[in-house]
Structure formats: structure tokens, C-alpha cells
Amino acid sequence: SVPDWKQIRQDIIDIIDDEDVINPSVDEGVQGGGGYIAPMLLRLAWHCSGTWCKDANNGGSDGGTMRFKPEADHGGNAGLAIARKILEPIKAKYPEVSNADLYILAGIVAIEEMGGPVVQFRYGRSDTEGPADFKDDPRFSPDGRLPDGDKDAQHVRDIFYRMGFDDHAIVALSGAHSVGRCHTDRSGFWGPWTRSES
After folding, report:
1. In degrees, to the nearest 5, what angle opens at C-alpha 63 toward C-alphas 98 and 39?
2. Is 46 among the catalytic positions?
């Protein structure tokens, strides 16, 4: 049977709007819900997808692979266990929905709830049953595939070109950094990217 995607979307919205949802961090500043977790859910979706390599034909969002080590511990994924935990009640309510689909849908709903455009969602991603080496299961990926904020423009180009993007797409996708804030226990940086972070 087809999951009730409309209700799942609403459940994600309810979590985003819940003032009691906690986003713990070692930094001072906004830590709770009420919309402030939407940027983190967007980051979760992007980091699941941003490991794709068009040449190696591996990585990406299929498999929900970030649930397992070593990918859960990749440097670029620091703090995303919090986002995955926040979504666990929805996964428990809808066991027929893959984590891979749930993570991507949460990012889409986050974009829309922060005032962004309506984004088309296509379901059908699978979940892997456990950890595997990317050489054995192409849904997994090696560390180092996500952009590092401490590197130069060529590094960013190398990361995005690997996925098949051009400079125009890089600029558009980099705009996601205008939402949310940095946390020293995640990116190593601190503070909001913008004055309108959610």
C-alpha cells in the first residue's frame, strides 16, 4: 500500500513547529524547536544526497546509509544524529516508509516551511539493513565527499562537479547556508549564517 504522504508531511511540520523539540548544542543561542530545527532537517537531506558520485555511481540518498558507522561518523555529518533521532517517532508510526525517503521528505518539508518553494518528492528509496563498505554496496560512500567550509573555492567545485553540477547550480545550492546557524560541535564554526536563519 502507498503510505499516507500527506499525513507524514503534516507530522514533520508538527515536529518542526513543536516548541519543545530540542536541538542540543555546546553553543549558546537558539536550541529549541518552533522552526529552528528546519535547517537541521534540510542539512540531513542534503548530506544524505550530497555523497553521490556520478562517475563511481555510488553514494547518494538511497539506503538511508547515514544510520550506520562509519558514515554516521563522517566529519560532515557531525550533529546529524540529532536530526535522525527527531524523526524516529515518525519512522515508528510509518514502518513501511524507508528512512531514506523520510530523511529526504523532511528536508523538502523544511524548505517549504521556511518559506521556500514547493519541491516535488518522489518516494521509493530503499533502506540498507546494516553497514557495508562502499565497494560492496554502492549505496554507501567514502568519507570526504561533502564540502568542507574550511577549504577554498576549488574544493567546493570539485565536490559539486563530482555530482554533475555546474557553477550556477553550486551558487544556488550554496544558498542553503543562508538558513540555520553553525555550531562548534558540528562544523567547527559558530553563529548564524544570516539574520533570518529559519
Report:
1. 75
2. no
